[in-house]
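User: Um, what's this?
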Amino acid sequence: MSRLSIFPDGSTSMDQSSPTPLLVTETPAEIQAELARRGIGFEQWPALQELPLAADQSWILKAYANEIDRVKRDGGYATVDAIRMTPDHPERVALRSKFLAEHTHAEDEVRFFVEGRGLFCLHLGAEVLLTLCERGDLIRVPAGTKHWFDMGGQPAFCAVRWFNNAVGWVATFTGNTISERFPTLD
């Protein structure tokens, strides 16, 4: 079940080791409303297609072509791809480490979870929002938003990703270690 946990970022607290959430909700309408108040998009779609184990990117993109085209058109995104992570993926440790570091992008980060789950952590001013996205969730993180992503130590997800550029995922790391103070997906 999708979940939103809102924490103070701890920057004004003497004890930054164990933050206490200000709000925790698993109600989709409340998640959507809280994120929207902060400029983050959140939708839930029916993830009707069961992915065969051997489904490749072209199969995934074809299965969700109508939804992909709508988001691409509405957001002006130039390219789209699909990423599928499994517990035995050879780059899972390196990718998790990279994604766990706080960073920004020059473009929106838009993801639709076809299967599995991932934790988007958004550092917005004096708040940190941990947004657990699961199958059927679409999240739009605006360009320039400080955030990190946790796919877990044994990742098992597939997400469609939209981009404004042909290069794909390009991050600018902030150097802030804030992600180390907050719960992870595991």
